[in-house]
Amino acid sequence: MSAKTASAALEAKPAPADKRQSELDRAALEALELDSDEITSVRLDGLALTKIVKHCRDAHPAAASGTLLGMDLGGTLEVSNVFALPNPGRGGDRDEDDDRASRNATRYTSDMVRLLRDVNADANPVGLYQGCFLGAFLNSSVVDGLAAIAGLMEREGASGKGKGVLIVHDLAQSAQGNTSVKAYRLSPSFIEAHRAGKFHTQSLIDHKLTFANVLVEIPVALRNTALLDAFLSSISTPSAPAPSIVPPSTSELLVNPPTAALGPSHTSLNLALEPVLASSLEATLEILEEHAAEAGNVGFQARQLAREKAKAEAYLARKKAENASREAQGLAPLPIEDVNRLFKIPAEPSRLETTLLLGQLDSSARRLAETAAVGAVQLHAARTGAA
């Protein structure tokens, strides 16, 4: 074998070491792939959580909403910052107010993202946060906002469906000493129906949609920075200053700044359950009235659609019978005009609003049941201890 043939054989067949190196490089590239098909968990920064809680408390009794900023890291959504959206004012027409609020929120979000990029801060919208009271939070504005965020993330290169995440903070539970933070994302079947823009009866049946599977709950984990942990430890366990009859100087105040200790919370032992139960029951009844009104509107539209369809079918049957009699007499049949042009057949009513109201009713009823159960246990414990 000549030297030229041997060198050609070596070039054609790579060495085993080179092959192993290429496999390692390929595995490293797959490990560095951060994009995922869906969000499986949320990691919320402590500072972002404090902003959400403060905004919900300041905006009460109005609903607080805002935008989440962060990054998708292999299925775990890292939420590093948030900013609040302007609270829309309610006028006479609810639909016009919702459209105007949606346009204002979109314009405000684009302006804030541009300003955050100018200062080199996190400027990737990854979802929304919503404040609620006594459990009810699902409405058409939240769904449209999540769908818009998911579409924006997919246009920027993210794969999969339903990347937008909704974080919900219940202010009522926070007032009782239990900070409640939950995360949701839209289900794939609901995203397909939302993109098609059809929520009539057959579409709900085809996509197997109910109020229970509009959203999918995902776990939330809280992550604090070292600076925030140090601040929380300083306000929870303050250092007591040494007793002195001389007022502290400025240098001493700078060395040992005054801190206030976090007092113990005894809200779980409070037996004044009547206001909480009354508020929960009132919220449940209000949602039930809204659902009954929306169901009445859908029923009226369905009856109007049935009447128009019956008129069109009667017209077609009459024309077909007339043409059959003319053909029996040997005459040419008359042309049948377009039914849609003669009769104004309306579109089938959308059942999206009724489905979302059923979701609100279910959440409010669950919250009412939890409050009543806790109250029953507390009252039983108090009576047992007193006896």
CATH architecture of the largest domain: 3-Layer(aba) Sandwich
Q: What do we call the CATH homologous superfamily of the largest domain?
A: Cytidine Deaminase, domain 2
Q: Return Rg in Å.
A: 31 Å
User: Strand sequence of the main sheet, in spatial order?
Assistant: 7-6-5-4-2-3-1-8
Please write the string of helix (H) and strand (E) elements.
HHEHEEHEHEHEHHEEHHHHH
CATH class of the largest domain: Alpha Beta
Q: Average pLDDT across residues? A: 76
Measured distance between first and last alpha carbons: 105 Å
Q: Work out the strand percent.
A: 5-15%
Helix content: 55-70%
Total count of helical runs of at least 4 residues: 13
Q: In terms of per-residue confidence, which ranges show pLDDT below 50 for 5 or more consecutive residues? A: 1-15
